[in-house]
Design a protein that fits this description.
The protein is mainly beta and about 300 residues long. The protein has one domain: Beta-galactosidase, Chain A, domain 5 (Distorted Sandwich), CATH 2.70.98. Helices cover about 5% and strands about 45% of the residues. It contains two helices and 21 strands. The radius of gyration is 18 Å and the shape is globular.
C-alpha cells in the first residue's frame, strides 16, 4: 500500500510503501529545486547518493547540485538552472503540492515556477508524479507540462542538464563496479572500455550495480515516445550521473555546428514524460521490466 503524508513544516511529502519509507519529495526554498531524497529499497538501502543533503562515509562529494532525483537544465533562455554557480536561476514549488493515494497509486501534483537570477519568470511547470509498487519493484511516472506563459522559451544546447536526472550511490558508479545499458544494446560495465552509452539516443537506459551492503539494484529510465525530440540523448556517466538530456547534441556529437536546442513559442506547452523502474538485480533481466517499458509506451 502506498501512503503519502505532507509535512508542511519541513516542506516535504513523505512516501511510504507498506509502512516503510520509500522516498521524500523535498520542495523547500532552501534549495534551488525540488528533489526526491532519500530513495530507499524495501530493506532501507540507499538507491541515490545522499550528498549534499547528508554526508555519508564512502560517498563522493562532487557536483553539489546533483541531489537524488530531480529536474534541471543548464540553458533556459540563456539562464543556468543546472548548477549553482554565480548567476544561476531556480525552480521553486508554488505553495504545497497536492498529495494523495488511491487504487494502489500515490500522487504528488503541483506547480513549479522557473525563475532567472533576478527573479524573472521563465515558465510554469505543472509537475505530476505517480508512484506504485509491485513486490520489490517501484514504478515512478513523472510528467512535466512546461507552460510558456511569459514568452518564448528556448531549451539550449548543453550537456549540462536533463529533464529527469538521478545521481546514483557511489557504490553503483559504472566506472567502478556498476553497469550502464541502453535500448540499443550499448553497455558500459565496471569501467571497462569506453563509455559507449554516453550521449547516445535511446528509448531507455538502465544503471545498476551494488549498494553499500553489496545488494545489486538498478534504475531503468524510459523516455516516452511522445516526448519532444524522442528518443532522447542521455548524459549518463561512469561517475554516477544519469540524466535524460534531449538538447546537448553539440557536446554529445562533438560538433559545434550541430544545434540541439528546442524553442517553444509563447502560450504553447511542451510535455515531457518519463518512467523510472527501480528493480533488484543487475541489468534488465527481469521480464517484468520489459513489460513495464512497453506499457508506458502504449
Amino acid at each position: 500500500m502506498i501512503d503519502i503524508q505532507l509535512d508542511t513544516d519541513a516542506a516535504k511529502a513523505v512516501v511510504s510503501v507498506d509502512g516503510t519509507l520509500f522516498t521524500e519529495y523535498r520542495y523547500g526554498h532552501y534549495v534551488c529545486r525540488p528533489y526526491l531524497c532519500p530513495v530507499l529499497t524495501p530493506g532501507g538501502q540507499r538507491l541515490t547518493r545522499g550528498y549534499p543533503a547528508e554526508e555519508i562515509e564512502g560517498e563522493n562529494q562532487d557536483h553539489y547540485h546533483h541531489r537524488g532525483i530531480y529536474v534541471a537544465h543548464g540553458l533556459v533562455n540563456g539562464v543556468n538552472l543546472w548548477d549553482e554557480s554565480t548567476g544561476h536561476g531556480a525552480m521553486l514549488q508554488r505553495g504545497d503540492p497536492e498529495v494523495g493515494a488511491a487504487g494502489g497509486v500515490g500522487s504528488i501534483d503541483g506547480i513549479v515556477d522557473w525563475f532567472g537570477p533576478e527573479g524573472e519568470r521563465l515558465l510554469e511547470e505543472q509537475r505530476s508524479i505517480r508512484i506504485a509498487a509491485e513486490g520489490e519493484l517501484r514504478i515512478l511516472d513523472h510528467r512535466s507540462e512546461m507552460r510558456m506563459k511569459y514568452g518564448d522559451v528556448t531549451f539550449g544546447d548543453t550537456k549540462e542538464g536533463g529533464l529527469f536526472s538521478i545521481r546514483v550511490p557511489t557504490s553503483m558508479d559504472a566506472k567502478e563496479r556498476g553497469r550502464i545499458e541502453n535500448s540499443e544494446g550499448q553497455v558500459y560495465d565496471s569501467g571497462q572500455g569506453e563509455e559507449t552509452t554516453w550521449g547516445k539516443p535511446a528509448a531507455w537506459v538502465d544503471y545498476s550495480g551494488p549498494l553499500s551492503n553489496g545488494e545489486e539494484w538498478g534504475h531503468t529510465v524510459v523516455d516516452h515516445r511522445d516526448n519532444p525530440l524522442h528518443p532522447t540523448h542521455w548524459h549518463v556517466r561512469g561517475y554516477g550521473l544519469f540524466t535524460a538530456n534531449a538538447f546537448g547534441l553539440h557536446d554529445f556529437k562533438g560538433d559545434a555546428d550541430v544545434d540541439g536546442s528546442l524553442t517553444v513559442a509563447a502560450s504553447d506547452t511542451a510535455v515531457f514524460r518519463y518512467r523510472l523502474i527501480i528493480h533488484p538485480g543487475r541489468g534488465v533481466g527481469n521480464p517484468r521490466i520489459g513489460e513495464l517499458i512497453d506499457e508506458f509506451q502504449s
